[in-house]
Structure formats: structure tokens, C-alpha cells
Amino acid sequence: MKPTRSFHSLLQEPNRVGIEFLLVEVRMGLTFLDVADSTESKEHRRRSLENACTIYRPVAELLSHVIPSPAEDSELRNKLSMIKERLLHGGLSVEA
Questions:
Q1: Cα–Cα distance between 29 and 27 in angstroms, integer?
Q2: Is 36:45 a contact under the CB 8 Å cutoff?
Q3: Distance between CA 32 and CA 51 in Å, rounded?
Q4: Which of 7, 51, 52, 93 is buried most deeply by CB count within 10 Å?
């Protein structure tokens, strides 16, 4: 018989899933920015910047709803800062 997970581990699971989601999102946002930087198409650049901006806003908001480890928190905040800086450099406002 498989052991039942502890109540504490069940409470931690949504937090873990949320953190993983946010990490994937910031990595995807940086990928969109890399595409925007490397394309020669103005339309593709605009769409890629907009996609990165669409990712930035909810991640910045949802970060306060999870409890990441210090390393995860540092990674999320550093990558969000990079996204914000690159969006501003690309001429987009990151404020809602």
C-alpha cells in the first residue's frame, strides 16, 4: 500500500506548482524578447514584445501569492527585472 502524503505536503503542492508556472513564464518571456531582438520583421518584433509584456504583468502580480525558496525568489525577481528593462528599452510600458 502506498503511503498517504502528509497534510503539510498537500498544502505545499499548490505553492510548488505556482512557482514552477512562474519560472516557466519568465523563461518564456525572455525567449519572446530574444526573438524580438533577432527578427528583422517589424511586425514579428512588435508581437514578440507584446507577448513578453503579456507575460510580465501577471507574473509580477502572482509572485506575491507564492512562497518561493530564496534561490527561486532571486531567479524570478532577476528575470522579471530583465524583462521589464528590455520591454522599456523596446518602447513598451509595463504598467497595467
A1: 5
A2: yes
A3: 7
A4: 52
- Side chain identity at residue 12, one-letter code: Q
Helical spans, DSSP H, in 1-96: 7-38, 42-62, 70-89
Distance CA 79, CA 27 (A): 8
Contact indicator for 30, 79 with CB cutoff of 8 Å: yes
Q: Which residues contact 14 (CB under 8 A, 6 or more apart)?
A: none
Give residue for cell 513598451. Answer: 92
pLDDT tens digits, 53-91: 999 999 999 999 999 999 999 999 999 999 999 999 999
